[in-house]
Amino acid sequence: MDLDAIDHVVLTVRDIPASVTFYTRVLGMREVLFGGNRRALAFGHCKLNLHQAGREFEPKAAHPAPGAVDLCLLARTPVAEIVRHLAAHGVAIEDGPVERTGAQGPILSVYVRDPDGNLIELSNPL
């Protein structure tokens, strides 16, 4: 088997509109509607599908739960600019900027929480 990339990840959330607002207004993703009023968030060549907690689509994770995800997202926007943007939107930085190791090498990251408490790492390759 020769895997290439992640196509999408499912986020189980308490409040879909609140999640859409955070990911579109703060992180610049695009809202996507598909198959029977389902909602997702798109960026680059990836997508985050949203499942309402307690009303998840089948098949689903064995234990879907809001706040159980830790995502690292690579950004073209420099981390210093990301820090200013987050402050302008009233989003607290939990940690960073700090150097970490990403899938393809060193990265510079800041960590924030989404409305469900998921940890979102926003990073630049170094």
TrEMBL record:
<dbReference type="InterPro" id="IPR018146">
    <property type="entry name" value="Glyoxalase_1_CS"/>
</dbReference>
<dbReference type="InterPro" id="IPR029068">
    <property type="entry name" value="Glyas_Bleomycin-R_OHBP_Dase"/>
</dbReference>
<dbReference type="InterPro" id="IPR050383">
    <property type="entry name" value="GlyoxalaseI/FosfomycinResist"/>
</dbReference>
<dbReference type="InterPro" id="IPR037523">
    <property type="entry name" value="VOC_core"/>
</dbReference>
<protein>
    <submittedName>
        <fullName>VOC family protein</fullName>
    </submittedName>
</protein>
<feature type="domain" description="VOC">
    <location>
        <begin position="5"/>
        <end position="125"/>
    </location>
</feature>
<dbReference type="Pfam" id="PF00903">
    <property type="entry name" value="Glyoxalase"/>
</dbReference>
<dbReference type="InterPro" id="IPR004360">
    <property type="entry name" value="Glyas_Fos-R_dOase_dom"/>
</dbReference>
<keyword id="KW-0479">Metal-binding</keyword>
